[in-house]
Automatic annotation (TrEMBL):
<keyword id="KW-0812">Transmembrane</keyword>
<protein>
    <submittedName>
        <fullName>NnrU protein</fullName>
    </submittedName>
</protein>
<keyword id="KW-1133">Transmembrane helix</keyword>
<feature type="transmembrane region" description="Helical">
    <location>
        <begin position="168"/>
        <end position="188"/>
    </location>
</feature>
<feature type="transmembrane region" description="Helical">
    <location>
        <begin position="40"/>
        <end position="59"/>
    </location>
</feature>
<feature type="domain" description="NnrU">
    <location>
        <begin position="4"/>
        <end position="197"/>
    </location>
</feature>
<dbReference type="InterPro" id="IPR009915">
    <property type="entry name" value="NnrU_dom"/>
</dbReference>
<dbReference type="Pfam" id="PF07298">
    <property type="entry name" value="NnrU"/>
</dbReference>
<feature type="transmembrane region" description="Helical">
    <location>
        <begin position="113"/>
        <end position="139"/>
    </location>
</feature>
<feature type="transmembrane region" description="Helical">
    <location>
        <begin position="71"/>
        <end position="93"/>
    </location>
</feature>
<dbReference type="GO" id="GO:0016020">
    <property type="term" value="C:membrane"/>
</dbReference>
<keyword id="KW-0472">Membrane</keyword>
């Protein structure tokens, strides 16, 4: 369990720098350069992610069960993860209505993904993993919205988000998100994680 906790601290800590120390982050980038910052950021994130995966795998071998979620929670989790996949795709498809409406769909998708897995799982490792990501996503989403509100009144960098969204882009976002969810739910989740969501 300690490896999972260490991985979460490292991974989420790196991803929280902009939330809690944005000025320090910018000063560090100015001092060492954007390339070096990105390299260090990526390295620490990768190490944290490896520790999370490894630590979670170890914790699953000797699970500490806190509660047994009812079967209906699996259905709720499936719906929430479907929405999460669509939001994840929305972060990368330009001109879609979901990105314009929510501004930061990837972080919102992480919130739904984490909440879904908390509803459907009841071990201590699950609470640490998905609860940690949910708490981070809530804080990051709020901080990102505050940054967007502050910058939108002073510049036009977010001009794309203020244009009329494309129906074609929005439909493509939903279709790709649903297909990606189906592939992951019915095949990749079992192959990569060893758990059948609909088993």
């Amino acid at each position: 369990m300690q490896w999972l906790v260490l991985g979460l601290i490292l991974f989420l800590g790196v991803h929280s720098v902009r939330i809690v120390a944005d000025d320090w982050r910018q000063q560090t980038i100015d001092r060492i350069g954007l390339g070096a910052w990105k390299a260090l950021y990526s390295l620490l994130s990768a190490v944290g992610l490896v520790l999370i995966v490894w630590g979670y795998g170890l914790a699953r071998q000797t699970p500490v069960v806190l509660w047994n979620p009812p079967l209906g929670m699996r259905h709720a989790a499936s719906l929430l993860t479907l929405l999460a996949f669509v939001l994840l795709v929305a972060a990368y498809v330009p001109g879609n209505a979901l990105k314009q409406r929510w501004q930061h769909p990837m972080v919102l998708g992480v919130k739904l993904w984490a909440l879904a897995h908390l509803l459907a799982n009841g071990t201590l490792a699950d609470v640490l993993l998905f609860g940690g990501f949910l708490a981070w996503a809530v804080l990051d989403f709020r901080a990102a919205r505050q940054r967007s509100a502050a910058t939108s009144s002073t510049d036009d960098e977010d001009a794309e988000d203020r244009t009329t969204p494309s129906t074609a882009a929005t439909v493509a976002t939903v279709v790709v998100g649903v297909v990606a969810w189906a592939v992951f739910a019915f095949w990749a989740h079992t192959a990569l994680i060893g758990v059948r969501p609909f088993g």
